[in-house]
Amino acid sequence: MSVSAEPRLLFVGGAGPISSSRDIVSDALNQARARGIRTHILSRAELLAETKEVTALADEVSVVDPDDPVACARWARERSAAGDRFELVLGLRDTVLAAVAECARVFGAVGNSPDAVSRVRNKDTCREALAAAGFRQPSVRLCDGVGQAAEFLAASTGPWVVKPRDGMASIGVRKVSAPADLPAAIEALPDRELFLVEEFVSGPEFSVEGVFLGGRPRVLAVTEKEKLPPPHFVESGHLLPADLPEERAREIERQVTAALTALGLCFGVFHVELWLCAGEVVLGEVHVRPGGDWLHRLLAHAIPGLELFGLIFDDLLGRPSTGCPAPTRAGAARFLTARPGRLVRIEGWERVRDHPAVLHAELTVRPGDRIGPVHQSGDRAGVVVVGADTPEAARDLARRLAGAVRFTVDGD
């Protein structure tokens, strides 16, 4: 697309309240501004108020619920009828992607179709579509109660995973090793009316980060993931790029790009999760938004000069682009956890925070807080994100710095 007048970006949803969301949305808005693109945020009043420093980066703001695609489409039709135009429509959270698709359709902007967004938003329909296209998938069943879930367990070999149909941040995700564990896992779900039970996949976990350019998926990096021990599935660390043989990394890239194409996706940023099981790629969840947990900072360090959203903006507006470079450095994130109890003191934090290789460091707890068990991403106590020249050096440094932070709780 070639645009001669000043282009405009409709940013559906803006930033969420967590710090990584504010940081990545600030990146997107600043990269748009640097290209002369005017920006307009569409979000709820309370979110706009919680993220004032991000909202201030936009040229315009409108108050509409970004999680309501009907309301957003109505707003878009009204603005279109009044003569407004938006060449670019973007959103960076799972819950707003249906509204992004509807608004892009109203304004005639490039975007993923509502059908494609719906297909990947619900994990069971995404699994069905990938399996039908020939990709290896864990078996899964959509259940509306303990009876259907028990039937799935009886007809398959465990262990299994119980999870929300469209959740995020590991909320409500739990491993089930025996039928006796099933009721407690269902009870922990945020929504027990419709949920998934699927086959547990054993093997190292990875994710793939990339963008769509010219409507085609382009991989930027493969990320190695570490998780805390089950029954919950909370990520404890990331390494980018993953320390993989070149041939294995190429096969992961081939499978992921083919899967995204088969799902009918063509626009935005993607984050695809997968396992390596007996040497084979088993695809997991597909997201048409950036990965969380500060992966955008790891990408920016590993690929010097990368402007993640600038790649998309330049491509859609027909402007010269730097292309899709590969990582030449590495980064790692390590998440902090504390033993349950009342937090008395934190030691070693200042030295870790001020280390010259630290790209970001954040504590989410403070003395006096009551610390609970880690069941989801929001239960972690903090994060240390580092940059280095090689994956091995990044992983070792992140582990060492995280290990230097000591949390003392009642009873220590």
Automatic annotation (TrEMBL):
PROSITE patterns: ATP_GRASP. InterPro entries: ATP-dep_AA_Ligase (IPR052032), ATP-grasp (IPR011761), LAL_C2 (IPR040570). Keywords: ATP-binding, Ligase, Nucleotide-binding. SUPFAM superfamilies: Glutathione synthetase ATP-binding domain-like. The keyword Ligase applies. It comes from the Bacteria. Pfam families: ATP-grasp_4, LAL_C2. Residues 127-317 form the ATP-grasp domain. This is Biotin carboxylase.
